[in-house]
TrEMBL record:
Official protein name in the record: CFA43 protein
Record organism: Xiphorhynchus elegans (elegant woodcreeper)
Subcellular location: Cell projection, Cilium; Cytoplasm, Cytoskeleton
PANTHER family on file: CILIA- AND FLAGELLA-ASSOCIATED PROTEIN 43, CILIA- AND FLAGELLA-ASSOCIATED PROTEIN 43-RELATED
Pfam annotation, one family: CC_Cfap43
GO biological process, one term: sperm axoneme assembly
Coiled-coil regions listed: 41-86, 278-305
Length: 521
């Protein structure tokens, strides 16, 4: 397309020139720049100067535009930082708000859970208590007091003895045979009563129907025995009838006693079982009462030992270890109680401090009094020593004269004049003595010089003699060198010990001196 091609060639593909296109602009150098500078003409120099000026202006514009872009970039960066900071602050505030709301929600949920747990425990305890009360009432209803009737059996007559007395007229052989028949008991089925202890009122005193059935069976058996077939030979019919009546009476009485004994045994067994059941029921009732008391104690604990939630800031609870301690046995105390206790502790501490200060001042006063006492004693000793010195003090003649003579000044003037005369005389004598001594000194100096010369000569001889003596000593004392060295070492050790002892003594005396000096001050 010619239009687009022209636009690209002439205007860089843009109808309006933008400012940022300046950075892309480049001024083409003149064609003669490849030549050497000395070969340039004036026109070429002028064109080169214009080229440099244009390049400089273009560079300045580029720099200005760069500065503008930098300022805009900084403004944009600051605005972006400000917006990000504001966003972070709002996000942080929203996060804090969310954390606080979550905290409050969790606290309320924890409260609800604690309340539901307490309510469930209370309901469970109530249901258990109601169940135990129902069980107790049932046991009380089941517990029935049973009163057993005591049966007193009148002592039965000795029927056998009465039988012998009744039939005394009969011969002995017939009497023995009748007695055997009398003691003989007919075989009757179903007369034994089974022991039934399940029903407390079932067969306690014997059923009338059972008694009638047993009696009818017994009477039938007795009718068979009373038949004349069983009558012994040679016995009268009337005696047999009396015998049968007596035997019937005996059988009836024995049957009655047997029935009574069976009922008594049943009653004893029933009584024993009831006593055992009563003991078991008592133990159950005691257990129920114990459980009821335990439930009441648990209820009281639940009512008194309440769970309370506390909001504690992070960092205010100090723990020695990472494990969370058990606060199950913790006690909730008012702040005022702790503050009162702290104030009382502080008051006691102040009292203790005051007593310690008082004791300190008292001890200081004792030390002060002791020091004053010691000072007074020393003053007394000093005064005594002064009095002693005054008593012992020798008084000179001048003092005696001053104390005795009235015109002491004139006397002193006369005495001074005499003293001057004596001094003049003494001065003359002293000068003479000095002259004599000077003569003696000169003579002694001469004598000393002579002696020094003699000593010098003797010292030279002595050196030669010492060399010879030392050679001989080395020869004779070579064997005794070890003993001498040991002796020398011992002497040196003793000297070192003496020196250390003396140094210690010096230190002790110095310390004592310092102590005495401080006491003196």
């Amino acid at each position: 397309d010619e239009r687009l091609r022209a636009l690209d060639d002439m205007m860089g593909g843009v109808l309006e020139v933008r400012r940022e296109d300046i950075l892309k602009m480049d001024i083409p150098p003149p064609p003669f720049i490849t030549k050497h500078e000395e070969l340039w003409t004036d026109e070429e120099h002028r064109l080169f100067e214009e080229y440099e000026k244009k390049v400089k202006e273009l560079n300045e514009e580029k720099e200005e535009y760069k500065e503008v872009l930098k300022t805009e970039w900084k403004k944009l960066e600051a605005s972006i930082q400000e917006t990000t900071q504001n966003f972070d602050e709002t996000a942080y505030k929203l996060f804090e708000r969310k954390v606080k709301s979550d905290m409050v929600i969790y606290q309320e949920e924890l409260k609800i859970v604690n309340l539901t747990c307490a309510l469930l425990l209370d309901e469970e305890l109530d249901t258990r208590e109601a169940g135990l009360h129902n069980c107790l009432t049932k046991k009380k209803k089941e517990k029935v007091s049973y009163h057993l009737k005591c049966f007193f059996f009148s002592p039965t007559q000795n029927l056998e003895r009465g039988f012998i007395k009744q039939f005394t007229d009969i011969p002995d052989d017939l009497l023995d045979e009748l007695f055997q028949l009398y003691t003989h008991r007919p075989k009757s089925q179903g007369t034994d009563m089974p022991l039934d202890t399940a029903n407390p009122y079932g067969n306690c005193l014997g059923s009338a129907e059972d008694d009638k059935d047993a009696l009818t069976l017994l009477m039938k058996a007795m009718d068979e025995l009373d038949s004349p077939e069983h009558m012994p030979d040679g016995l009268d019919q009337s005696i047999w009838k009396n015998f049968c009546l007596a035997r019937r009476k005996k059988m009836e009485s024995e049957e009655l006693v047997k029935r009574k004994a069976l009922t008594l045994a049943e009653m004893q067994v029933f009584l024993r079982r009831r006593l055992e059941e009563n003991e078991k029921m008592k133990s159950r009732i005691e257990n129920i009462f114990k459980e009821l008391t335990w439930l009441q104690e648990q209820k009281m604990k639940l009512q008194q030992n309440l769970t309370v939630q506390f909001l504690l800031k992070q960092g205010q609870v100090e723990l020695e270890s990472t494990e969370i301690p058990d606060y199950s046995d913790a006690i909730l105390i008012k702040k005022s109680v702790v503050e009162d206790l702290n104030s009382s502790i502080a008051a006691q501490g102040e009292k203790k401090v005051a007593t310690i200060i008082e004791f300190k001042e008292f001890s200081r006063g004792i030390f002060r009094l002791e020091w004053e006492h010691k000072k007074m004693r020393m003053q007394i000793e000093d005064l005594k020593q002064k009095a002693r010195d005054i008593v012992i003090l020798p008084i000179s003649k001048d003092c005696q004269l001053f104390l005795t003579v009235l015109n002491y000044d004139s006397h002193i003037a006369q005495h001074l004049a005499g003293m001057k005369q004596t001094l003049n005389v003494m001065d003359k004598l002293h000068k003479k003595n000095v002259k004599n001594h000077q003569k003696k000194v000169r003579e002694l100096k001469k004598y000393i010089r002579l002696k020094e010369q003699a000593n010098y000569e003797l010292s030279l001889e002595l050196k030669e003699m010492l060399v010879s003596v030392s050679e001989r000593r080395h020869i004779f004392e070579a064997a005794d060198t070890r003993d001498i060295s040991e002796k020398i070492a011992k002497q040196r050790y003793q000297e070192i010990l003496k020196q250390t002892y003396l140094r210690d003594l010096i230190k002790e005396q110095k310390e004592e001196f310092e102590i005495l000096q401080s006491e003196l001050e």
